[in-house]
Amino acid sequence: MSDLPIPFPPQPKALPIALDIQHDTDPADDHGKARRIPHMGHAALFFAIAGFCILFGVAVILTAAHIRTQAAALAHPGIAVAAQAAAYIGTIAIAMVIFPLLWHRSFFSGVHWNGLVAIRHWKKIVSIGLLVSLVSQVSMHFVSAPQDAPIDNLILNKHLIWYMALFAIFLGPFMEELAFRGFLLPAIATAYDWLSLDRTPAGLARWEQSTAHSTPALIVAAMLSSLPFALMHAAQIGYAWGVVGILYGVSLALSFIRIRTQSLACSTLMHGCYNFIIFLLLFLSSDGFSHLEKIAR
What we know:
Helix 11 (241-261) crosses helix 12. The N and C termini lie far apart (90 Å). 66% of the residues lie in helices and 0% in strands. The chain has a domain at 112-295. The model is unreliable at 1-9 and 11-30 (pLDDT under 50). It has helices spanning 40-64, 70-75, 77-103, 107-110, 115-120, 122-139, 150-155, 161-195, 201-209, 215-232, 241-261, 264-285. By secondary structure, the protein is mainly α. It is globular. The longest helix has 35 residues, at 161-195.
């Protein structure tokens, strides 16, 4: 037997600790500078599409239903809610066509959907969503709320409650997470990093090589993007600012999950679970939605 050492095959180079999902990992397919997706321009375009669909779509549906006054709309809340759902679906459909053309990548990749992360950690995400919902529901007992908020006219409508539950658990969370944590949060973080960038050759080189956001940028982005999220619900709850503050805290929790997991699917799942608890409590308190008067204020 030879005393020569046994030759081993060359060891492969170690993989990088974190992959930059917005920058090609295969040098052969590298397209140059790192592309930050989505940035503020993309977010502005998305909200413009949403505004158009909501204003135009709702107007068309209400006009077709011969609803031309606010009083008539309040008298037919189901049509108004259906118009909002149609506007959400229209926004998502248009966005899924336009943005892949701008990004040269799939829509869900661009908004960091990362569904596999949600599948892998769904038990934790669901548990956190249920816990945050329970804590927020308890907290609302310590703040003032109007006796007849507009949202009550929808939730306490026995003809709409099941539809509202489906809307709030599935379509609503997807649309809101897409808007505020799929587009707005990373766009604000990118803008913050650009404004605070060290304008030196080394700093500019880092900017071109990686799309990773700094910790301060993510904190500021979570705080700022949570403001419009909370204020969007203000009219529905009769401008009860204590409740708006609680919703701001909920948005921060959703932002933390989105940032921590780098997955929009995770924050969407958590959001859906949050809303699920609300309607589950309503279901149990009203004998299966049969006696909604029991939960009327």
